[in-house]
Amino acid sequence: MKNVMSNKYVIALYTLPALLLILTLIYIPIVLSGYYGFMDWDGIGEMTFIGLDNYITLIQDKLFWTSTYHSFLLAIFSTASLLLYLAISLVLASKIKGSDLLRKIYLIPMLLSSVAIAQLWMKIFDPTNGMANKLLEMFGVENTPIWLADPDIALYAIFIPVIWQFAGFYILIYYAALKNVPDEIIEAAKIDGASSLQIAYKIKLPLISGIFKVTIMLAVVGSLKYFDLIYVMTGGGPNGASEVMASYMYKEAFKLNNFGYGSAIGFGLLVIALFMTWLISKLTKSKDDVQF
Amino acid sequence: MKKKAFSSVMTLALAGGLILGGCSSSTGSNGESSSGDKTVVKMMHLWPEGSSNAQYTIVDDIITAYEKENPDVDIQTEILGNEQYKEKVKVLSASNELPDVGITWAAGYMKPFVDGKMFAPLDDIAKEDNFVAGTLDAFSVDEKPYAVPLELNITPVYYNKEIFEKYSLEAPKTYDEFLNVVETLADNKVTPITLGNKDRWTGSMWYMYLADRIGGPEALNNAINRSGSFEDPALVQAAEEIDKLVKMGAFVKGYNGLSNDEAKGYFMNEQAAMYLMATWELPNYTTTPDVSQEFKDKVGYFKFPTYEGGKGDIDSYVGGPGVGLFVSEQSKVKDEAKEFVSYLVEEWGKRSVVDAGVIPATVVDTSNSELHPMYIDILNDLGNATNLTLYADVQMSAGVADVHLNQIQALFGGQTTPEEFAKTQEEALAAEK
């Protein structure tokens, strides 16, 4: 076995299927979309080479930077909500009654498809008949918000289901990580007289910091490329108030028949996402990653 | 280091998946053309059973009948809602996977497909005489038809008679009367008008009518075909009127966030008194079995009222041919597809009148059929129409249409001034030439 695995040809052979898949499904499309970015193309007829025009337009495009700003807002919100998820997981992992059931409840949104979630929340946000405004009316609020139709709050209104949607996923990750913290360490701390808060802050959190960094990365990159709920719930509207990078790319390519420019936006999105990944891994780098 | 590599790959994977998402759409339609010894003709249309029941049933019946007459042909349908359909067709055509037969809109929407040689010319099956004058032209490029029209629509204002009676209101004939209706309803906390302006073309129809009534049909048409300007005083004034309606509380709460289907719900549930929509909605008020007779009896319609001192008359309509059928140029079963299309158009003309209350684009003799009175009235109105203005967003090219539609949403949302509204569109139209 050892001989087989050290044979370079065998290694190449074994990695080939995965390599081919990644190449054809990921790297080649990336290169292609970068290439389409140099074209003036309506997606149907002939392509014309226009050099860097699309990319120059992109840099000067106010709408693109507004949508980038919205994407970053989402990234900030979802990163901040990681703390909430972490707090919930800490409670769940501390062997309270019914934690099993609660964990399953938190997981439910993850099992729903994005479109179903979007439809559900559109009903909740309906300005006249929706649950949100009916509740507010019950508490005597008179000028209930119009949620998705108000350019000042549409984007934030969508953040709520987004944060709700991913709760289960992150709670699951944190919960698993917390369960991995060895009992001996916690028992030792208890014997030394540490309170449960101290145990959480001084022992559990440092021990799962590696996982925490990974989730930050996932949340930021996931937010930057986020698309589904926004597309279904507002389509980027009203008048661009909830447009994010991915929905802007989709709109240019598929609604306005600008496949060339749409590809350039996609490429811009890729560059921004790569840069953020690099930045985060640099910022969260620490020498003393704990191993146990 | 390892983690960094991992995360880079992860990012690439995520971003790559996104870029790819667009290109790898679902159905491969051109691949297999025959299953067993049957010829498969793939068709896509936009009348889901739930929301456009009448149209869905007609198409379904026609297909069944056609398959019976032609046992060697198998018609397979894929059905999507309006907005999704519009986008999916573009995705499919970008990857050369258009269905053999599908639905398209006229003029500006259709042009890129024709320029890109995606639609087959249909001059061999479309005969001018079979269609209502002008409808085939809307689907023609350089005198050659690339799709055959199915429907012809005008856009009346539907209203709930019961609500009107309750506040002793009458269907308005002038704009001042109309404003009075709106005011009375708003004062009594009844939603006067339901509007799904998330879809934007819905608000555009309100604007188009006001522009027509104030400046006559030429004002907007000239602005779009560049013999005039969008900063024409009539067009600015129309925008001011919209602004006024919004401030009066004429439209349903949160209209800019509601889709047309959601907004329609307010009218169907009698939570709003008026609804401006094209005659493709007629089946819901006449023939559709799912809608209660009690509600159908409450629905009436009126022509968009005239504006005092305005140039447009009451018999001028926003409307025109709705959708048409195309045959894909890439189709491997083009002959069968064309044959099916001409059969469908003919049958559609016969059945749509009687069964659905949809106005077909084909010339049909209706004298022998028993028709719903509202339908006959509309048909008469259509006969007396002095002008039909095609929907602005269909007239314009995709890019300008998007500017127009966004400005409509901004205007209704109070995020722009009427002057700004006109100026932005003038700039977009001017930049194109």
Automatic annotation (TrEMBL), chain A:
It is a multi-pass membrane protein. Pfam families: BPD_transp_1. Its main location: membrane. GO terms for biological process: transmembrane transport. The keyword Methyltransferase does not apply. InterPro entries: ABC_transporter_permease, MetI-like, MetI-like_sf. Gene3D superfamilies: MetI-like. SUPFAM superfamilies: MetI-like. It is found in: Cell membrane. The chain crosses the membrane at residues 12-38, 72-93, 105-122, 153-177, 205-227, 259-280. This is Xylose ABC transporter, permease component.
UniProtKB/TrEMBL annotation, chain B:
Pfam families: SBP_bac_1. It comes from the Bacteria. InterPro entries: Bact_solute-bd_prot1, SBP. PANTHER family: ARABINOSE-BINDING PROTEIN-RELATED (PTHR43649), BLR3389 PROTEIN (PTHR43649:SF14). This is Xylose ABC transporter, substrate-binding component. It comes from Mesobacillus selenatarsenatis (strain DSM 18680 / JCM 14380 / FERM P-15431 / SF-1).
